[in-house]
Specification:
156 residues, binds zinc ion, four-stranded antiparallel sheet, Gyrase A, domain 2, 3 helices, alpha+beta
Length: 156
């Protein structure tokens, strides 16, 4: 089986919440694509409940595109401790962390149901499993800790 960088990370050594650049890959035409680890909770200590994570996912899909150029995809980890962010080009960790921090602040302080896109049966694969209340509580707690620019040493 192929080696996957994410599984070589020592999950006991990181200090969440943080943004970590996992890798930059270049396609055959030379385009760069960057993969980031947006770690919101401390691995093996806390995980975001599915409904809250699901609503955070739907909101980040719009909020990160509003704050960063080149967003391709932002999808939750199966362990429910954070998200992969895939972008065109090579945005800096600093810019991604600032965008994530502001998106979480928005979710915590301002978001209403009108700000959660795609929550109908037509638009979502499990539309009953959303929690705006949970999303706001988790976003507030994560934002209050600050988003570190380094995975191993808190740099907020
Ligand atoms: Zn959904």
């Amino acid at each position: 089986m192929a080696d996957v960088e994410s599984f070589t990370l020592d999950h006991t050594a990181v200090r969440a919440p943080y943004v970590r650049r996992i890798a930059v890959e270049n396609g055959p035409a030379g385009d760069a694509i960057t993969n980031f680890d947006l770690r919101l909770t401390q691995p093996n200590e806390q995980e975001i409940p599915t409904a809250a994570l699901h609503s955070i996912e739907h909101m980040l899909a719009s909020l990160l595109r509003d704050r960063l150029t080149g967003v391709i995809d932002c999808s939750p980890f199966g362990c429910r401790t954070g998200f992969h962010l895939i972008t065109w080009g090579e945005p800096s960790v600093e810019d991604v962390a600032a965008a994530l921090a502001d998106a979480l602040r928005f979710i915590a302080e301002e978001a209403t149901w009108d700000d959660v896109p795609g929550v109908s049966a037509v638009e979502c694969g499990n539309y009953r499993d959303h929690s705006l209340h949970g999303a706001k509580e988790w976003a507030a707690a994560i934002a209050a800790e600050g988003i570190s620019r380094d995975a191993f040493t808190r740099t907020v």
